[in-house]
Amino acid sequence: MKLNLDIGVPSPPGWIDEVLNDFGAFLQDHADCERKASATAMSLVAKYPNRLEIIPELIETAVEELDHFQQVYKIMQSRGIQLAHSIHEDLYIKALMKAQHDGLEERFLDRLLIASVVETRGAERFKIVADHMKDEELSKFYKMLWVSEAKHGHIYVKMALHYFPEEKVYKRLNWWVEKEASIISEIPLRAALH
Questions:
Q1: Is residue 7 part of a domain?
Q2: How many domains does the chain divide into?
Q3: Residue 38 belongs to what domain range?
Q4: Rounded to two decimals, what is the model's pTM?
Q5: Which CATH number is 143's domain given?
Q6: Which of 37, 39, 42, 127 could form a Cys-Cys staple with 65, CB 3.0–4.6 A?
């Protein structure tokens, strides 16, 4: 049983150029994304405390994302880069959230599947960064993140399969992969994860 789908379209080639031209801004955004990913996992725990089967994995995911934030922050400190004073509006996440269903159960499924596609896109982009890094330590760091984000993409689908029929999960996941592909193709390129 496949626990995620591949991304619908690859990141535009110009994206990595933006990242490499302003790696400091990318690190600031990356740190923000790790904090938000941790908060997302914990918000699912808070909103769905009755979903006992997935709470341990959500907590584990939140802790792992927070650990990634700490690691990114250490890299920033070593380069004299401060955390951003405010978190920029993420047009990518905003567009995904806007497309959610309204019903209680449908929204729960959508939140899990949105998390999966976001993590899968993150994995794709971390691999691109790792492949383009001349600094060997940074390349190893982003390879590790690539593996971790791919795993998170799988985890969220596995969580959905606890509560919804396989056919429903994969039909909706296919829809999200297509939606995400159209969103990622339309947003402006910048030195940011999304």
A1: no
A2: 1
A3: 14-186
A4: 0.95
A5: 1.20.1260.10
A6: 37
The answer to whether residue 123 sits within a structural domain is yes
Q: What is the DSSP letter of 91?
A: H
Looking at the domain assignment, is residue 146 inside a domain? yes
d(CA 17, CA 129): 10
Instruction: Extract the residue ranges of the chain whose pLDDT is less than 70.
Output: 1-5
Nearest to 64 by CA among 40, 45, 38: 38
According to the model, what pLDDT value does residue 3 have? 55
Task: Express each pLDDT in 90-137 by its tens digit.
Answer: 999 999 999 999 988 999 999 999 999 999 999 999 999 999 999 999
**CA separation for the pair 160, 108 (Å, rounded):** 9
Domain contains 6: no
pLDDT at 88: 79
Q: Minimal CA–CA distance to 152: which of 17, 3, 19? A: 3
Return d(Cα 92, Cα 179) in angstroms, integer.
11
- Sign of the C-alpha dihedral, residues 27, 140, 114, 58? negative
